[in-house]
Design goal:
heterodimer; A: mainly alpha; two-stranded antiparallel ribbon; 14 helices; 2 strands; 73% helix; disordered C terminus; B: alpha/beta; Rossmann fold; six-stranded mixed β-sheet; 17 helices; globular
């Protein structure tokens, strides 16, 4: 293949495909949907994906290192619910916040330890720890599904903060995206994520601290989940723990995978999260404007996730050809 | 005796690298045919073509005089050709009887009936194996019996054994040989691949010897003895650069003792082995597959741990060390260049620069948390030049490079850590001829620069030509030290086979 069309096709990787689809949906929605291309709606889109995007940043750090963290939504909802419950029962903020943070850290460390040192599959460890966190906090620490934010708390102020007319969520998402970018790109530990995700055995043999770094990644994902929970509480002035049983977890994986972060590890970065978040945000918004029922939205999202995972599997195969060569 | 199988001028190349070249091979009913050769001589590939595991690149296979092609091992099995693998292919969590009928279950399957027929079948073979036992509870010998029973149950007329005795005790071996003779009496043709020459001489009727993928000798076992077999296995054409006469004055003198290993053990693979490694010279280590050479040096490099009790001692510069991670060994200046670059050597989706930089990032020579991409570029420029690594484009992924360039990347990844002791494990495996010479030069330059260099190899000319002293490993232990001046391929091979 030569010439412009050939070059275009050859450079067509998943990231670009998704980018083009995003642009196409955006243009279609802007032309076809009244009220889509208003500044209010565009801000709503960005705001709606801010929490999702933050969660996807944490998830991506884990996935690039060839893991997955299915406990994120439980950690997000339950840590903040517990925190607010502590405040409600009269514990000072100076004690409640460190306590909640310690709980979040503990979940991250336990997840990481079980995956790194006990060598258990990440998908089951985090699935179990997520439901443990949900069950324990819901049954032992909070009396109701939803906990509201005390009226004079800084979280309320955070929710009302709108510099230049844009909600604070958007700034926080941008700041965390920048932090994640700097971490993954310009720090030693961030680079270790890619090496361990590409080939953990080679990374270990080269002398990288593969196991401690694994623990670190699950701590990072737990902490980002806590941050996302605080933002959710800020915009809703309460946290509803039923979100744990929603499709939010799949949306997180969807954002990460559809943006081009390979589930086989070692691939992608913050840019992919941003593209994935943009596509999902625009799509969800368009579906809402079109008044598509929730059930159909879920069907569409799950179909897209399935297609994204299949495409990911085709584009980034875990090596099957090696099994046949080498042994003469 | 009737000829069952005939392979005519079969060849097999993996990605253009020939593994077997135009070999003729035949098998008769009721014979035990020993197939011998060094590591990489093509024994496994030849038999895999017979068993339908790989397809020949050229040549043909005749079964009862009819040309056949097997697309899958199952096709071969249906035609009566079974292969018993080195690593057994049984399902550990199932019973013996279930394994026996694996893939041949009746649609309605009653366990009791299965056990009864399995019991009768095993008795008919005179195998003392309980059909209701879980395979994972069985020892190596009994597992092998189940494998063999399965092959016989499929009415196999040809059974291929790849290193069948490697995991057996002497007692179990006697039973195994008795079994082979019984199978032979039933008219089964048996291919017996082994490194154990005595066993081959004792049990086989005919012998075929391969070397570098070519047939070098075949005939009745009575025509061979240990010496002639070894000579045939190693006797290469003495061609130019591959082979040079070593002169005592050309050998490097040992420098300071860097590594001193005493009586280290690890399970069954490494048994009470002791040796030393010196600065400024290449210590060649020869051993056949399964001799524990890789395992021994992986302990030194901190990749695996030696036994906690009675594990022996390792001293680096007279300081006792016991590493629990490779990172500790890297910090002490030990680099291990793996024999299996694909699975544990390089980062395959990354570029050459990222691979080299990974080595630096993992070492204490990279200070601080901040990573500069300009450092990576500079490092890559320096080392791709020094090691002559050629990639099509700067951003080409390592997996797209040739074997030789991949190997240089893995070597470079270790060398950027500025080690004092470098362990090369099979440094030229799967590497093209031109790159072999370059890699040998890299290794020699390191020794000239005063580093302690270990070179593990199962390629005899490499060991003889590159080493300043030669250690021979057999059954988990360094059994012999030779000087390259006095050593010959025959002497080394003699020490390496049991």
């Amino acid at each position: 293949m030569n010439g412009a069309p050939g070059r275009f096709l050859r450079n067509l990787n998943q990231e670009r495909i998704v980018l083009w689809i995003t642009v196409a949906i955006f243009v279609a929605a802007a032309l076809g949907l009244p009220g889509f291309l208003t500044s209010g709606n565009l801000i709503a889109i960005v705001r709606s994906v801010s929490v999702l995007g933050i969660l996807a940043l944490g998830m991506s750090v884990v996935i690039i290192g060839r893991g997955i963290d299915l406990s994120m939504v439980a950690v997000m909802a339950m840590s903040v619910a517990w925190y607010l419950q502590l405040l409600d029962s009269g514990v000072a903020d100076g004690a409640a916040l460190p306590l909640a943070l310690a709980g979040v850290l503990a979940v991250g460390v336990v997840n990481g330890f079980l995956v790194a040192y006990a060598e258990l599959p990440a998908i089951f460890v985090t699935l179990a720890s997520g439901s443990f966190v949900f069950g324990y906090v819901r049954s032992q620490l909070i009396p109701q599904d939803a906990v509201s934010v005390p009226s004079d708390h800084w979280i309320i102020a955070l929710g009302k903060l709108r510099p230049v007319g844009v909600p604070a969520d958007v700034y926080i998402f941008a700041a965390l995206a920048l932090a994640a970018f700097v971490f993954l790109r310009f720090t030693k530990w961030g680079r270790y994520v890619y090496y361990a995700g590409d080939n953990p055995v080679a990374a270990r043999n080269a002398g990288m601290p593969v196991r401690p770094m694994l623990v670190l990644r699950y701590v990072i994902s737990a902490l980002t989940a806590f941050a996302a929970g605080l933002l959710t509480a800020a915009s809703l002035q309460s946290i509803n723990t039923r979100v744990v049983n929603s499709t939010l977890l799949y949306d997180i994986v969807l954002v990460a995978v559809i943006g081009g972060i390979g589930l086989s590890g070692g691939k992608g970065g913050v840019r992919n999260v941003l593209i994935g978040a943009a596509l999902i945000g625009i799509m969800l918004n368009a579906m809402t404007i079109l008044d598509i029922p929730q059930l159909y939205q879920n069907l569409i999202k799950s179909t897209i996730l399935l297609v994204a995972i299949i495409v990911d599997g085709l584009l980034n195969p875990r090596d099957e050809q090696t099994a046949q060569q080498g042994d003469i | 005796m009737r000829t069952i199988v005939q392979m005519e001028r079969v060849s097999k190349a993996y990605r253009g690298v020939p593994a077997v070249r135009a070999v003729d091979f035949d098998l008769r009913a009721g014979e035990i045919h020993a197939l011998l050769g060094e590591n990489g001589a093509g024994k496994s590939t030849l038999t895999k073509m017979l068993a339908g595991v790989v397809e020949p690149t050229s040549g043909r296979v005749l079964l009862d005089g009819q040309a056949v092609t097997f697309a899958t091992p199952n096709d071969a099995l249906q035609a009566g050709i079974a292969m018993v693998f080195q690593e057994t292919s049984l399902v550990p969590s199932m019973t013996v009887a279930q394994n026996l009928y694996l893939g041949a279950e009746k649609f309605l399957n009653r366990l009791r009936g299965t056990y009864i027929s399995a019991q009768q079948f095993l008795q008919s073979l005179n195998f003392a194996v309980d059909p209701t036992a879980m395979v994972e509870t069985l020892g190596a010998a009994k597992r092998q019996m189940v494998e063999i029973a399965r092959a016989v149950h499929h009415n196999a007329r040809v059974i291929i054994f790849d290193e069948p005795t490697a995991s057996l005790t002497p007692e179990e071996k006697r039973h195994f040989f008795a079994l082979l003779r019984r199978l032979k009496d039933r008219g089964v043709a048996i291919v017996f691949i082994s490194h154990a020459l005595e066993e081959a001489l004792q049990i086989s009727d005919r012998i075929t010897i391969l070397r570098d993928g070519e047939l070098v000798a075949h005939g009745p076992t009575s025509d061979f003895d240990r010496e002639t077999i070894i000579a045939a296995m190693v006797g290469r054409t003495l061609s130019g650069a591959l082979y040079r006469k070593r002169d005592a004055s050309a050998l490097r003198k040992p420098g300071r003792k860097v590594l001193s290993v005493q009586d280290i053990s690890q399970g069954r693979m490494v048994r009470n082995t002791s040796f030393s490694v010196f600065e400024g010279q290449i210590t060649g280590v020869f051993g056949l597959i399964g001799s524990g050479r890789t395992e021994t040096f992986k302990i030194v490099a901190g990749i695996t741990k030696r036994d906690f009790l009675r594990g022996g001692t390792i001293e680096l510069d007279d300081r006792p060390v016991r590493y629990s991670t490779p990172a500790e060994a890297v910090a002490d200046g030990i680099a291990y260049v793996t024999e299996d670059r694909k699975t544990e050597g390089f980062f395959d989706t990354m570029s050459v620069a990222e691979n080299l930089f990974g080595g630096l990032l993992a070492s204490p020579h990279h200070r601080g948390m901040v990573v500069h991409m300009s450092d990576m570029k500079a490092l890559a420029a320096e080392w791709t030049g020094q090691l002559n690594i050629r990639a099509i484009t700067e951003n080409a992924r390592v997996v797209e490079l040739s074997g030789g360039n991949q190997q240089k990347v893995v070597i470079g990844k270790g060398l950027v850590q500025k080690p004092r002791l470098v362990i090369f494990d099979e440094p030229t495996r799967g590497v093209d001829v031109a790159a072999i010479a370059e890699i040998h030069k890299i290794i020699n330059d390191l020794a000239d620069a005063g580093l302690a260099v270990v070179m593990i190899s199962s390629y005899l000319p490499e060991v003889l030509n590159q080493s300043d002293r030669i250690l021979v490993c057999r059954q988990g232990r360094i059994v012999e030290e030779l000087s390259p001046v006095e050593a010959s391929e025959e002497k080394i091979m003699y020490a390496a086979v049991h």
